[in-house]
Amino acid sequence: MNAAKQLREKLNQTPMVVAPFVYDALQAKIAERVGFEAVYMTGFGTAAARGFPDLGLLTMSEMVENVRTIARSVQIPVICDADTGYGNPVNVWRTVNEYERAGAAALHIEDQVWPKRCGFLAGKQVIPQDEMVPKVRAACDARRDPDTVIIARTDALAVHGWDEVVRRAAAYREAGADLIFVDGIRTLDDLRNYAERLKNLPLLYNGQLLPVAELARHGFKLTIYSGTLLHYYQSARSALSELKETGAVKPIAQDNAFRELIDLLGVDEMDALGKKYTGR
């Protein structure tokens, strides 16, 4: 079963799918190993890993390269940030084609102007609803695999408020989007409004305001869990700061960790393949 079909079945059969933020293949492989059913390729993290802020500075090709790297490293579905689709409906068509070829099981496009901004930064602007609807329709029509999940994201909350969000969400769903994604949910009141005002739509939630079990009770079909992103940053920063300040990093069970890591990366499988062809 391909990854898109896996994801669609999980969305139909489970109360809520949880996909932690990842921005490289190692993080994705760890998430798979510990038991997650999907991962989310974060645009913020993809940009950050290349030394850029999430301000629309990466190209579609750079994003697709990361989709391909992550998707080929795991067997679980990869849900992907596709920013605004990188242009008009024709650009969106190509974006969907390229993401699918790279292995994306799902992708979201948003209604921000280009260049976009991270959904939790101030200063966002959105395009008119009647410009976004054709982009959603193009994304849905462009699918080669009917199981590929198309997610329509709106950033209108911070710009225009809930009434506009409700109108846009209904329009994007009518245009064919499989899931609706309202970004910029900052408070528990926002979260409750999201779940209640759009309760008749299939919803994606981005954040960590509540534990996963409580989020599921709000009726979300998919949660992309952003908290992992800051933990990657904080863990690396803490270790490097400690090394710089003290000349050492607190020891961990290095032998066990190294064995786990080489197992995760498939060293034994590669060695066996080498022996098969070289006898060594």
Number of domains: 2
Q: List the quaternary state of the chains.
A: single chain
CATH homologous superfamily of the largest domain - what is it? Answer: Phosphoenolpyruvate-binding domains
Tertiary shape: globular
Run of helices and strands: HEHEHHEHEHEHHEHEHEHHH
Average pLDDT, to the nearest integer? 94
CATH topology (fold) name of the largest domain:
TIM Barrel
- For this structure, what is the CATH class of the largest domain? Alpha Beta
Uncertain spans: none
Summarize the main sheet.
8 strands, parallel, barrel
How much of the sequence is in beta strands? 5-15%
Rg over CA atoms, rounded to whole Å, is 20 Å
- N-C termini distance: 35 Å
Largest beta sheet: what is the strand line-up?
Answer: 1-2-3-4-5-6-7-8
The computed structural class is alpha/beta
What is the count of β-strands? 8
Give the second-level CATH assignment, the architecture of the largest domain.
Alpha-Beta Barrel
Per DSSP, the total helix count is 13
The share of residues in helices is 40-55%
